[in-house]
Structures are given as C-alpha cells and as structure tokens.
Amino acid sequence: MNNNRRTFIKNALFVGLGLGVASRPALASSLTEQSAVKMPLFNPDLARIRQLATSVTGALPVGLNVLSIADTERPANIVVKGAEANRKIKLERTAYQLQYADGTIMLDSGMDEATHLTFGKGGNFYPERYQVLQQALSQAKLIAFSHYHGDHVGGVVRSAELPQLAPKVWLNQLTAQQMVAKPHKPTLKISQQIVDQFIVVDFNQYYPIAPGLVAIKSPGHSADSLMFYIKLESGQEFIHSVDIGWSMENIVKQKMKNASWIKEDEKQLQAQFVWLNHLMATEPTLQVLCSHDALQYQDLRRSKVLGDFYIA
Ligand SMILES: [Zn+2]
Fold first, then answer.
1. Which residues are bridge partners to 93 per DSSP?
2. How far is the CA of 147 from the centre of ligand 1 (A)?
3. Distance between CA atoms of 25 and 31, rounded to whole angstroms?
4. pLDDT 10s per residue in the chain (312 long)?
5. Residue 91 CA to ligand 1 centre (angstroms)
6. CATH assignment of 2-11+38-302?
7. pTM for this predicted structure
8. How remote is the CA of residue 94 from the centroid of ligand 1, in Å?
9. How far is the CA of 144 from the centre of ligand 1 (A)?
10. What separation in Å is there between the alpha carbon of 13 and the centre of ligand 1?
11. In the 3-class helix/strand/coil scheme, how is 40-97 assigned residue by residue?
C-alpha cells in the first residue's frame, strides 16, 4: 500500500490536471454527444455515498472478510499494458463476506472448479476453500453480485443449493439480463425462472443495499459492473473496485489490461482510475480493494484489515 501511495504522489499532478478546466474542451470534443449522454464519465460523489451508507437503519458491519478459492499467474504484460513480458503477476479469485452482528452479506460468489478450468490453463483451485465458500453462501442473508463474469457469479450459479440461494441474490438489472441472454462461460447457463427469483434492482447511480453497503454503477470493465462502498462500525471504509483493474498496478499506474479476450471501455476505466487514485491520496480512512490482487490479499489479511471467512 505504501508503494501504491508513493507511486500515486508521482501521478498526483497529472490527476489534478485531468480534473482541471484546461483539459475539458479536449475531453468533450473526443466524445460524441450521444455517447456522452449515454455514459457520463465516472465521477461519483463520495459525500452522497457516505450519506447513503447510513440511510438504511441498522448497525454497521463489524468486519469485512475475504477468501480466495483459486489463483493463477499471468505475464505482467497481459495484466498491465506496457509491463514486462518476463515478469509474472499472481492473481487471486476472491469472494468477500461482510460480517454484521446478526448475519452476513456476500459480495460475489467465486466459482466452482469446472468454471475455473474455462479460465485457461494453469492455476490452482482449492476445493476445501470452495467448501467453506459454499457454507458462507448458504449462511448469508444476502449475496450481492458486482457483474456477470464467471469468477464472480459461478459459486451461486453452479451450486447444488441454487434453488435455496436464488431468493437472496441481489443484482442489478443489466447483470440479470446478461446472465440469461449471454452467460460469460458455457458452464453458467441459467434459466429465466431462476433469475425471476433473484432480487433484481434497476437504479441510476448509487443504491444503498444494507447498513454500511452502497452499490455504485461503474460501467467500463463490463457494461453491468458495480463497485461497492463499505463502512464498518470501526470507521474503516472501503471502495471495493472489483475488476476495474486486475491488479492494483492497473489502478496506480492508470494502465489498461492487455488481454485479447476482454473488451473494455477505456474512457470509463481511465476516469475510474483517476477517481480511485484521488481517493487513495485524500481519504486516509478509506482502503481501495481489487478482487484479484494477490499482494493486497496477502497484506490486508496479514494486517487484519480483512478477516477470514466467518462460518457460524
Ligand atoms: Zn473477475
């Protein structure tokens, strides 16, 4: 994290300019009027999000927990455009668990081994951790999906308990549509009848899901992508940026991924990188999370900022 902050200081001037008046005419002229209306560049109002986080009555969560059920190593130049081909970056496949005094909410659901195998050769899958994940899903009061990709929804879609899990799955309308119309992987076909049991929500920018938990619409990685704002009882805050970057290096260096199999909206992601860097520089109580960053997974668990999954 210290390293991220140091790199950020180098970028801070650039970020300042990016938000400045001087760059606005160039930005506006590079967008057609239509696309500017359809997809305004990302610049959420943190004060409004903080207010929404306490708009649902009830006690704030006491902890945020994480579990990785698989990992893989990829050449750095695939994960981060312009990085070295001979360096490897390790990626984790995580799900998060928000712990309240009286229950838990899952943020994404990981994936089963069959879906993991569709993500290419190599990598490790940990069946015993997947069992823990399935227990956590089974005990959760709510399961919120960030976007339709297999490594985020597979743990529910492929679960033997899908009929029991379905009524507590929370997702936005775009994710629900995508899961039926064009599932991310062949293993993830799901019927409209099951999706009809999900809690499908259509909203504009922000949605307060539960005390201390707000979804933020963040199209870019995929059209349906969300980020999550989280506030704990202790005052610790998080922005879970999900897959905006595959690693914190994408975010800190403001560099796109470079994999042939994904199509992202670069303008939106660059605006999201700027916002996340701005938060890292100006909000000392707020930690930016990244689903797949292995170094962060290790560091934040070691420092107890993130806990291990709680199973009742
Ligand atoms: Zn992912």
1. 70
2. 9
3. 10
4. 444 444 444 444 333 333 333 334 444 444 444 444 455 689 999 999 999 999 999 999 999 999 999 999 999 999 999 999 999 999 999 999 999 999 999 999 999 999 999 998 789 999 999 999 999 999 999 999 999 999 999 999 999 999 999 999 999 999 999 999 999 999 999 999 999 999 999 999 999 999 999 999 999 999 999 999 999 999 999 999 999 999 999 999 999 999 988 899 999 999 999 999 999 999 999 999 999 999 999 999 999 999 999 999
5. 10
6. 3.60.15.10
7. 0.87
8. 8
9. 14
10. 30
11. CCCCCCHHHHHHHHCCCCCCCCCEEEEEEEEEEEEEHHHHCCCCCCCCEEEEEEEEEE
The one-letter amino acid at 44 = P
Å from CA of 155 to ligand 1 middle = 13
Give me ligand 1 centre to Cα 108, in Å: 10
CA of 160 to the centre of ligand 1 (A): 22
CA of 64 to the centre of ligand 1 (A): 19
C-alpha to C-alpha distance for 246 and 7, rounded to whole angstroms:
18
Per the structure block, which two tokens stand in for 7?
């790199």
Distance from the CA of 58 to the center of ligand 1, in angstroms?
A: 30
